[in-house]
Amino acid sequence: MDCIFCKITEGTIPSKKVFENERIVAFHDISPAAPVHILIIPKKHIPTMNDVTEEDGPLVAELFAAARQIAREQGIAESGYRLVNNVNQDGGQVVYHLHVHLLGGSKLSPILGEIKS
Ligand code: 5GP
Ligand code: ZN
């Protein structure tokens, strides 16, 4: 399967990993949008949030648990952070393997809502 994040999971594409267990891996985003920008992904190939099933519930909970732990380890739990999941074209999804962005380390600009142009 031609999926960048599956290749990162397998180690055939290198990444700067900060967390890994049997089900989840987290690594620094290659093009950081904030001082801390880490991607947290399931090892299982799930294309988008739309493809998450009932049985994936514990896995999704574990993604958020990993995000909490990584935020603490990165020293941004108290200062604050943002978790983002982009879905499909209008959501700005580029890589079609489920991932949560962990962003922090500075005051983030408001990004929620429609882009007015
Ligand atoms: P999306 O727009 O799909 O929510 O986010 C995809 C993210 O993956 C982007 O922030 C992009 O910088 C990051 N990314 C794309 N290719 C690679 C890669 O090969 N390695 C790493 N570490 N990040 C990547
Ligand atoms: Zn994948």
Explain what the structure shows.
By secondary structure, the chain is an alpha+beta fold. It has three helices and five strands; from the N terminus they run αβββαβαβ. It has a five-stranded antiparallel β-sheet with strand order 1-2-3-5-4, covered by helices on one side. β1 and β2 (24-28) form a beta hairpin. The radius of gyration is 14 Å and the shape is globular. Bound molecules: guanosine-5'-monophosphate and zinc ion. Residues 3, 5-6, 45, 97 line the site of zinc ion. Zinc ion (ZN) is lined by residues 3, 5-6, 45, 97.
Question: What topology does this entry show?
Answer:
Elements: H1 4-10, E1 17-20, E2 24-28, E3 36-42, H2 57-73, E4 81-84, H3 88-91, E5 100-104
Antiparallel strand pairs: 1-2, 2-3, 3-5, 4-5
The structure holds guanosine-5'-monophosphate and zinc ion (ZN).
Short description:
This protein is of the alpha+beta class. It has helices spanning 4-10, 57-73, 88-91, and strands at 17-20, 24-28, 36-42, 81-84, 100-104. The chain has one domain: HIT family, subunit A (2-Layer Sandwich), CATH 3.30.428.10.
